[in-house]
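To: structure subgroup
Subject: Chain for Friday's discussion

All,

I'm putting the inputs and outputs inline so they're searchable in the archive.
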Amino acid sequence: MTIEPATELGSGGALRLPRARVVPLSAPPSLYTAAVERYLTGAGIAKSSARIYRISLTTWGWMLAGEPPPTGPARRGAKPPVFPVAAIDDPALPEFLAELAAARADEMDADTVNRELSIARKAIGWWQRQGWIECDPTIGIERRPAPPDRTKALAENQIAALWRLDVALREKTQWKMLYESAARADEVLCLNVEDLYPQDKRGRITAKRGATEWIHWQSGTAQLLPRLIARRTRGPLFLTDRKAPAGTPTLDVCPETGRARLSYRRAEEIFEENTRLLANPLASPDDIEDLDGWTLHRLRHSALTHDAEDGTSTPMLLARSRHASVRSLERYARPGVDSVARHVAERDGGARDRRGRRRRAVPGPGHGPSSVSGRRSGP
């Protein structure tokens, strides 16, 4: 974007102060959908994040077009809204958009609402810097306060019951991998066949902020993966049951089967439906459809909690969880003061006494030499 000064004649022929005039860096796209694609390719969005960004920007597209976004089954297969990108500068839009955003916030969880708002603002800011639009209609829309993470770990007998469910090979493999690797669900669903190293029981993922990281699994996943992959050599690891609809991004389509990548929403829906009876063992089969099952996030939370309870060392828990701070482990099992001190000492090369000599941390009551202790977090 470049800015050119422009002078104007005021009343009485006096010159006004120069005002900035935005000159677009490139010809602006005519339609919103085209602006979204230009943003995803031109703003350096990681391939693993592009799918989530596109979904969020499609949701906001309906609201920017003055329509409430479809929810539930109606969202599946709904065509993206078609309207000119210049409509974002409509002076009447901010007030109407705030009402639509508030209505959506009442229906969705705070984390989803905040994530979608953040993505929309990033895209709008990028379009402004290109000189395609001038206004940000989301100004005045506030982020929703996210509730504290109260996710509870599943008990080991509940995990065992999960493995006994009669479900498809895709679900068995996906759930095993989530639990054994303690990875985030969106990371696992973004895996491609070519990202896997089965002989090493590991896979390459793109984590937060675009960093390349590795997840590791165990024998349960290792036994299921060859059957799931069959003879495929590339494309998304977890696929839908049907052919990909027209317009599905190439990165989300298997070039060998023509099927699409399984979405987070659908994977969560399948897991929730299949675990309703496990989550509500005393419920009547007639009432089960009105009850909630478990969320995919609980598999990660459970894996790390069980690791902590089994005495896994603090450095190993950090490596498994891929958290940057040892304090983040407190949601799984609260580290004792001595455990945190030992980790800091190990990280900094060892603590020293007043005379400058290296000393070893003495474990306190109930703490092993390098373990994270804490109460068991039951369901």
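Points worth raising on Friday:
Residues 110-130 form the longest helix (21 residues).
The radius of gyration is 26 Å.

D.
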